[in-house]
Structure formats: structure tokens, C-alpha cells
């Protein structure tokens, strides 16, 4: 997926209800946190944070249509299949691990369902939606998969029902569903290549970038609870600011970005999941100090200088961390590039 996938009409807000039977499709990109600081613990159980996020072209896919039947009919599957994913993770013969890592709810607890139910209620939409969600983004990885899916489904519903993509209610619904969700809506009329988020993560300021960044993502065979990682974290006495990362992003200077990167949730996540510690130390020993945890984990990522370097690092890390099936938990290593959100909502 590249930046051109951002639809112009999606940004112009031209909307009228689509004919009955129309099917729309969009991608839901993952995100990485180049910087994440804890500024304070709030009385409502959340933290004031200062974070810089970039969307990447590792995406889930959503296909949606309206139904005359009220409610949300949701199907969830993995790309290319749950079996292939379990084999790549080395858990094909471990039903408990498959459930823990690949078990995605298809009921009202799925953030896609939560978002669509709120759309139906907030806009008095007649009937309901059918949504087919095809997963690629690992869950419990700190990559914003569920949040991105929710924002993508909300944008598809808006397109189907002739609701402007700029309607403030869309942002409100996203902010109600989760702290990461508003980021995936983009920012006003402009596609978003990077954002600095404060509050609990819902207050967004676009960050200028010099162009796409090349990345290697390593997802270990473990799913981490965001709430548990935050609960195990400490607010520092002197929180760092994201200004250095923001300036380096504008320059597109990978070395400068790398030396300004930081994630305050890394230490608690490494204690909760020692696999993360093993991966980080191994990649750092390989000379990639730009490698760090994203969000609340468990995935880690390294910034590199080119797609060639990304391919080379990824093949080295696959040899080290990926297992054949049934050889015990491994990891999934993928190259990626930063992109922009939201992606186009296309009519099938
Ligand atoms: C770690 C990040 O992914 C970084 O982008 C986000 O801060 C988390 O965003 P998210 O997964 O959408 O989180 P939410 O679903 O809103 O909150 C899940 C739980 O994480 C904790 N949480 C989340 C956000 C925040 N600013 N402070 C918190 O302490 C709270 O215990 C909350 O109940
Ligand atoms: N659409 C969805 N995709 C994946 N998981 C979902 C979805 N809806 C609800 N979930 C549940 O939410 C849990 C967390 O999923 P995920 O990690 O993708 O969420 P997130 O909060 O957006 O991302 P992050 O890991 O950055 O916090 C999953 O383990 C799953 O049980």
C-alpha cells in the first residue's frame, strides 16, 4: 500500500448514500510508536502520554455492505489462513497457543462491532452491516490492529450511508472506543503520515515527514495486554518530550530518529514477556540500536536506511527467530514501510 491509496474524495467529504447492495473495501494499516512517554497517571485509570505514531503498510482488510437486518454480522479470518499463520509461528500443533495468539472475537466485543453499533445508534441508521474482516496485523502486539479495524469499519459505514468522512461524530465514536482509534481516522481533510498524540492518545497533531521510512518488524510469539503493561509501568519524575523525534522525522534522518526514539513501556513489557528482551538484545548486538518496542508490545521494530537493508536484516532475523511449524514458538519477521492514514474506501 502506498500513500496514493489515500482517496481524495474521502478527504473532500463529498458523501451521498450508496445504492443498496453496494460493497466497499478498505485497508486498516498498523501503527508503530517511535516515541512513547508517560507524563502522568490520571484518576480515570488512564495515563497522560506523549507519543509519536506512524502508520505502516502491514494492513488488515475490511469488506462491508449494508443489510436490511438490524445489527452487525461480522466474520473474521486470517490471511492467507489461520493454519499458515500458526505454522509460521510454530504453534500449528498447539491449540491453546493458536487460541491465545490467533483467537479474534467475532462478537460484540470486536472493536469493529463496537464501532458499527455506535454508528447505527448515533446516526439512526436503518438496518445494519455485514463486515468481513481479514486479519494480518498480530493482536496484542502494540500495532493497533483492533483500533485500526474499528476506524476503518467506521469509515466504510460512513461511505455506505452518505455520512461525511469529516463528521465530528466519527472522531467522537473513535475516541470512545479506544485511545489509539482516532489516529487511524487521519486528521481533518489531510492524510496523516505521522502524528504526535497527547491526552490518553486521542489529541492529535500532524507531524511533517520527509518521506517513507523503511522498517523491519519482529512479532514474537506472545500477546501482551495493554492494560497489564501500563499497570506495570512507572511515570518518570522527569518525563522526556517528543520534540527531538518530531524534528528528526521532518528531516527524514534515520540516525537522528533512532537516537531520539524511546518507549517508556519497554521495560515493563520486557519483564512481562522475556521473548521481547531476547529479541531486542539480539538486534542491538547486530548493530541496530534503532530497534525498540512499539506501543505496549509485544512487537519490536528497527528503522533501516533502505529497502535493501530491510530485506537483508529481515532474512538474518528470520534465520534466528522464525521456527518451522511445531518447533516451538517462533516469531514473524516482516519488512514494512511507513504509509498514510486513512486509506481509500473503494467501491467493489
Ligand atoms: C499503548 C498505545 O497503543 C500507544 O499507542 C496506546 O496508549 C493504547 O491504546 P489502546 O490500545 O487503544 O488503549 P485503550 O483500549 O484505550 O486502553 C486500554 C487500557 O490501557 C491503559 N491505558 C491506555 C491508554 C493510556 N493513555 N493510558 C492507559 O493507562 C488503561 O488501562 C486502559 O484501560
Ligand atoms: N478487530 C480486532 N482485531 C484484533 N483483536 C481484536 C479486534 N477487536 C477486538 N480484539 C481484541 O482486542 C485484543 C487486542 O487487540 P490489538 O492488540 O489488535 O488491539 P489494539 O489495542 O488496537 O492494539 P495495541 O496492541 O496497540 O494495543 C485482541 O487480543 C482481541 O482479543
How would you sum up this structure, described in words?
There is one protein chain. The protein is an alpha+beta fold and 348 residues long. It has a single domain (3-347), classed as 2-Layer Sandwich (Ribosomal Protein S5, domain 2). The protein is 33% helix and 26% strand. It is built from 12 helices and 12 strands. It has helices spanning 8-12, 82-88, 95-102, 111-123, 145-161, 168-177, 226-231, 243-251, 254-260, 266-272, 274-285, 307-321, and strands at 23-41, 47-67, 71-78, 128-135, 195-198, 203-206, 214-220, 262-263, 292-293, 300-304, 331-337, 346-347. Strands 1, 2, 3, 4, 5, 6, 8 and 12 form an 8-stranded mixed sheet that branches. A 4-stranded antiparallel sheet has the order 9-10-7-11, with helices on one face. The longest helix is centred in the middle third of the chain and has 17 residues, at 145-161. Residues 1-13 have low confidence and may be disordered. The site of adenosine-5'-triphosphate has 21 residues, from helix 4 and helix 5.
Amino acid at each position: 500500500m502506498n500513500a496514493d491509496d489515500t482517496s481524495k474524495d474521502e478527504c473532500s467529504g463529498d458523501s451521498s448514500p450508496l445504492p443498496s447492495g453496494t460493497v466497499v473495501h478498505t485497508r486498516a494499516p498498523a501503527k508503530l510508536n517511535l516515541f512513547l512517554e508517560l507524563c502522568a497517571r490520571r484518576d480515570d485509570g488512564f495515563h497522560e502520554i506523549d507519543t509519536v505514531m506512524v502508520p505502516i503498510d502491514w494492513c488488515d482488510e475490511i469488506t462491508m455492505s449494508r443489510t436490511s437486518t438490524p445489527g452487525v454480522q461480522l466474520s473474521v479470518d486470517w490471511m492467507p489462513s489461520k493454519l499458515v499463520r500458526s505454522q509460521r509461528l510454530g504453534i500449528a500443533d498447539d491449540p491453546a497457543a493458536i487460541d491465545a495468539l490467533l483467537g479474534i472475537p467475532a462478537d460484540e466485543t470486536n472493536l469493529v462491532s463496537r464501532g458499527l453499533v455506535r454508528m447505527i445508534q448515533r446516526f439512526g441508521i436503518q438496518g445494519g452491516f455485514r463486515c468481513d474482516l481479514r486479519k494480518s496485523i498480530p493482536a496484542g502486539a502494540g500495532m493497533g490492529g483492533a483500533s485500526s479495524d474499528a476506524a476503518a469499519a467506521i469509515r466504510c459505514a460512513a461511505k455506505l450511508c452518505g455520512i461525511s468522512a469529516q463528521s465530528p461524530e466519527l472522531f467522537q465514536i473513535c475516541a470512545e472506543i479506544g485511545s489509539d482509534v482516532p489516529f487511524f481516522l487521519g486528521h481533518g481533510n489531510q492524510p496523516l503520515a505521522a502524528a504526535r498524540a497527547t491526552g490518553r492518545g486521542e489529541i492529535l497533531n500532524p507531524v511533517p515527514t520527509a518521506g517513507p521510512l523503511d522498517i523491519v518488524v519482529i512479532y514474537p510469539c506472545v500477546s501482551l495486554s495493554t492494560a497489564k503493561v501500563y499497570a506495570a509501568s512507572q511515570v518518570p519524575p522527569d518525563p522526556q518530550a517528543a520534540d527531538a523525534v518530531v524534528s528528526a522525522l521532518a528531516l527524514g534522518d534515520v540516525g537522528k530518529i533512532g537516537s531520539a526514539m524511546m518507549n517508556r513501556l519497554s521495560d515493563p513489557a520486557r519483564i512481562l514477556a522475556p521473548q521481547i528482551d531476547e529479541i531486542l538484545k539480539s538486534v542491538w548486538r547486530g548493530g541496530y540500536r534503532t530497534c525498540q518496542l512499539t506501543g505496549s508490545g509485544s512487537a519490536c521494530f528497527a528503522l533501516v536506511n533502505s529497502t535493501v537493508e530491510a530485506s537483508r536484516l529481515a532474512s538474518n532475523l528470520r534465520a534466528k527467530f522464525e521456527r518451522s511449524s511445531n518447533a516451538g514458538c517462533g516469531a514473524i519477521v516482516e519488512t514494512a514501510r511507513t504509509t498514510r492514514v486513512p486509506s481509500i474506501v473503494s467501491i467493489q
